C-alpha cells in the first residue's frame, strides 16, 4: 500500500498541505480531485520524494525518506503535468530513459511494447520536439510504463503516479490512457491519478480523494464521494450528481454551477 500519515508541506513560507491522511491500494485506480490550488500536485510531489515534507509516507511498507533514488525508481514511476527536454531526443530514446531508470533494462522489447500501448509505435524514430503536445504526453506515459513495466515484481506491487494524464488529449486518447491505467491496476499494480474531469474520474476510479485548500475533505468509493454535497463544497459551486440507468455508473452535470459566495464557508 501507499500510506500518507499527517503530511504537511510548506513552500516559500506558505502552507500548501496540512495534516493530510491518504492511502492507495494496489489493484485500484485511486484518483485525487479538487479545484486548482487545493494541493493535489504538491501531494504527488511529496509522495514521489521530490519535495520535503513533515509526517510520514510509506510505499510497500518502506518509509520513502529511507529509500535510495534507485530503490524508489524501481518501485514507482511518475508522469508530471509537464515534461521539458533540454536536448533533442527521438521518441524511442525518451522511452529508453524510463527503461534505464527501472529494473527491466535487459528487456529489449519493452520500448516497442510501451510505444504500442500508447499507439505511437510508428513515431519511434521521430524527433520528440516535432510532436504535438498530446503526442508528447503519450510518449511520456510510455516512458513511465517502461520504468515499471511489470505491475508486480517479486510479489510486490509497482506504482504509476499520474499528474493530470489526460489534460492535453482528445476524448479517444483520454479513454485509451485511462484504459491503460485500469489494466495496469487490475494486473496488480497501483495507480494514483490527479484528475480534473469528474465524469472520467467516476468512470475509471476505484477510490477517490477530494481535496480542498490543502486538506482532504473525504475519500472513498465513487458512490460515497461523488455527491452533491462533497463536490459543491470542494469546487465552490453548486454541482448535481446524476445517475444513468445503470446504478453503478454516475455522471456530473454543471447546469447549476454558478459560483458560490465565499461568505458561505
Write a concise synopsis of the structure shown.
With about 260 residues, the chain is an alpha/beta fold. The chain is about 30% helix and about 25% strand.
Care to describe what's here?
This protein is an alpha/beta fold. The chain has one domain (2-264): P-loop containing nucleotide triphosphate hydrolases (Rossmann fold), CATH 3.40.50.300. Helices cover 32% and strands 27% of the residues. The chain has helices at 40-47, 69-75, 91-101, 109-117, 133-147, 171-186, 198-204, 222-225, 228-235; strands spanning 2-11, 14-24, 29-33, 54-59, 62-63, 76-79, 152-153, 156-157, 159-163, 190-194, 207-212, 215-220, 240-243, 250-253. The strands form four sheets. Strands 6-9-10-3-11-12 form a six-stranded mixed sheet, with helices on both faces. Strands 2-1-4-5 form a four-stranded antiparallel sheet, with helices on one face. It has a two-stranded antiparallel ribbon with strand order 7-8. A hairpin with a 2-residue loop joins strand 11 and strand 12 (215-220). Helix 3 packs across helix 4. The two termini are 34 Å apart. The relative contact order is 0.16. The model has no long low-confidence stretch (mean pLDDT 89).
Amino acid at each position: 500500500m501507499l500510506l500518507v500519515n499527517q503530511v504537511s508541506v510548506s513552500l516559500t513560507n506558505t502552507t500548501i498541505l496540512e495534516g493530510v491522511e491518504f492511502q492507495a491500494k494496489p489493484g485500484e485506480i485511486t484518483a485525487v480531485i479538487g479545484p486548482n490550488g487545493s494541493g493535489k500536485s504538491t501531494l504527488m510531489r511529496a509522495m514521489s520524494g521530490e519535495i520535503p515534507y513533515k509526517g510520514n509516507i510509506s510505499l510497500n511498507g518502506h518509509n520513502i525518506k529511507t529509500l535510495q533514488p534507485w530503490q524508489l525508481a524501481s518501485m514507482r514511476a511518475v508522469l508530471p503535468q509537464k515534461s521539458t527536454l533540454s536536448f533533442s531526443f527521438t521518441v524511442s530514446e525518451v522511452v529508453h530513459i524510463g527503461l534505464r531508470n527501472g529494473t527491466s533494462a535487459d528487456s529489449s522489447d519493452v520500448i516497442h511494447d510501451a510505444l504500442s500501448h500508447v499507439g505511437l509505435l510508428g513515431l519511434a524514430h521521430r524527433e520528440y520536439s516535432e510532436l504535438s503536445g498530446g503526442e508528447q504526453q503519450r510518449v511520456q506515459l510510455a516512458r513511465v510504463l517502461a520504468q515499471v513495466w511489470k505491475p508486480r515484481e517479486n510479489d510486490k506491487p509497482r506504482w504509476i503516479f499520474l499528474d493530470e494524464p489526460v489534460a492535453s488529449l482528445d476524448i479517444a486518447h483520454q479513454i485509451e490512457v485511462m484504459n491503460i491505467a485500469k489494466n495496469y491496476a487490475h494486473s496488480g499494480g497501483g495507480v494514483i491519478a490527479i484528475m480534473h474531469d469528474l465524469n472520467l474520474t467516476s468512470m475509471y476510479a476505484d477510490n477517490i480523494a477530494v481535496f480542498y485548500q490543502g486538506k482532504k475533505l473525504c475519500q472513498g468509493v465513487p458512490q460515497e464521494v461523488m455527491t452533491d454535497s462533497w463536490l459543491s463544497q470542494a469546487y465552490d459551486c453548486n454541482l448535481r450528481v446524476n445517475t444513468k440507468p445503470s446504478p453503478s455508473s454516475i455522471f456530473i452535470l454543471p447546469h447549476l454551477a454558478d459560483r458560490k459566495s465565499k461568505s458561505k464557508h
